[in-house]
Known about the structure:
This protein is an all-alpha fold.
Amino acid sequence: MVRKYLFASAFVLAATPALAAGFDDCTAPYAPAALNGKTATEEQMKHALSDVKDFIKWSDDYQDCVNNTLIAMKKAATKSKDKQPLDPAYQTEAEDRIHKNQLLKEKVAAEFNTAAKDYNDTHPSTKSP
């Protein structure tokens, strides 16, 4: 009984690095730090907007990379000698990576929008970028 669990655990541990290795060429971007719009300067708001735009672009590129890698893996699996379909765990991994990144994109955008609103409320004569 114990051997069965050890074998199953060893299989999961052995498969995990291989699964992650499939998407190694896709690097998720780091989210920019949130900004306090009540205390930020106009220059800081401009830099924050630029950082947010860059992050969103890099996130789109990352999501494309994950999706394109998955497509290539599926094609390679069907062209392999045994013609076996790709392990569904790769599909799940790709969906999870894209979903997590999408949630982070939405969080970063919401944080900037809050900062811009706070900035505009604090500086009514100067509108944020």
